[in-house]
Design a protein that fits this description.
Layout (H helix, E strand, L loop, with lengths): L3 H12 L7 E3 L5 E5 L2 E12 L5 E10 L12 H5 L5 H20 L8 E5 L2 H6 L6 H9 L7 E5 L7 H13 L3 E5 L3 H10 L4 E5 L6 H14 L2 E5 L4 H14 L4 E2 L16 E2 L5 E2 L9
Parallel strand pairs: 4-5, 5-6, 6-7, 7-8, 8-9, 9-10
Antiparallel strand pairs: 1-2, 2-3, 3-4, 3-10, 11-12
Helix pairs in contact: 7-8
Length: 289
């Protein structure tokens, strides 16, 4: 599917590149953005089903870019610039990253029907004084892009910040976005899914060793229609334990990590290694052969 408004905007970017612009298209068709004296671009890491490893979405990551760099991954922009930026500058970077990501994602035909997960920086929650999500929704509407497939990831928060997280989540949901929340424990994930509706909770694989607690979370999340996403999954032995528990209950969790995929600019571009080091080839429909 071709998004005509997006196509028109990309054509405009091709013809307006100059030192005064903060977003442009390179010779390969990749969108880049300028923040201070740094150049950023997008990498995408797939999110897969634990039941059949089929791709169900992508996580957009902002990475530094330099001509002829040896790896397309680059460095994390937030790690490079976080401590040197004010709140207003962080908000500007956050919005620039999201714009770069949605253009780089939806310019690729394989993105159609896939979910795109985008991080919201913690500074954005407190720094934005008006209705969260309004500006981003306006941009998506102008580019005629499907906001229904955008999942905004809220950062981890302490108990004292919970009111702020709830306020921000309500505003984004009011603007039609789906919400995922990063949590720092299984207990926090259980509490969150019990007390409010979110589309997903994301946990580091390092805190998923309590299989009993994980099983409880999966059942509660299933009842509330919330996806459980286990991220930073790099260890095959840990994945096997999670896979065994999930398949025993016939419940699905979503998984993300270097065990399955390295982030890259193109969707469905290269053969991937499966969790058993089997060669997997992604075809144009997002299905594994």
């Amino acid at each position: 599917m071709v998004f005509q408004a997006l196509k028109k905007y990309i054509t405009h970017l091709y013809t307006t590149k100059s030192v005064n612009t903060n977003i442009w298209i390179d010779d390969t068709g990749q969108v880049q953005g300028r923040y201070f004296h740094s150049t950023l671009t997008s990498s995408f890491q797939p999110i897969r089903s634990s039941l059949d490893t089929q791709i169900v979405g992508y996580h957009g990551l902002a990475r530094s870019y330099a001509p002829h760099q040896q790896s397309e991954l680059g460095l994390s922009l937030w790690r490079l610039l976080d401590y040197g930026a004010s709140d207003d500058e962080s908000v500007e970077l956050d919005r620039l990253c999201r714009l770069v990501h949605v253009i780089n994602f939806y310019r690729q035909p394989q993105a159609f029907g896939q979910d795109l997960y985008l991080n919201l920086h913690s500074r954005l929650l407190a720094a934005v004084q008006h209705n969260h999500g309004t500006a981003f929704r306006t941009i998506l509407d102008r580019l005629e892009l499907p906001h229904q497939h955008i999942v905004l990831e809220l950062p981890q928060s302490s108990q004292n910040q919970r009111w702020l997280l709830n306020h921000v989540a309500d505003n984004y949901q009011h603007n039609g976005f789906r919400i995922a929340v990063n949590v720092n424990s299984i207990e926090q994930a259980i509490e969150l899914t019990r007390h409010r509706h979110v589309d997903a909770v994301k946990l580091d694989s390092s805190i998923c060793n309590d299989l009993g607690g994980l099983t409880k979370l999966i059942h509660i999340a299933s009842d509330s229609g919330t996806n459980v996403i286990i991220k930073k999954l790099d260890n095959e032995a840990q994945y096997r334990l999670i896979e065994q528990r999930v398949k025993a209950d016939e419940h699905e969790v979503l998984v993300q990590g270097f065990l399955f995929d390295k982030p890259q600019a193109a969707l469905f571009k290269a053969p991937l290694k499966g969790p058993r080091n089997e060669e997997c080839t992604k075809c144009g429909t997002g299905q594994l052969r």
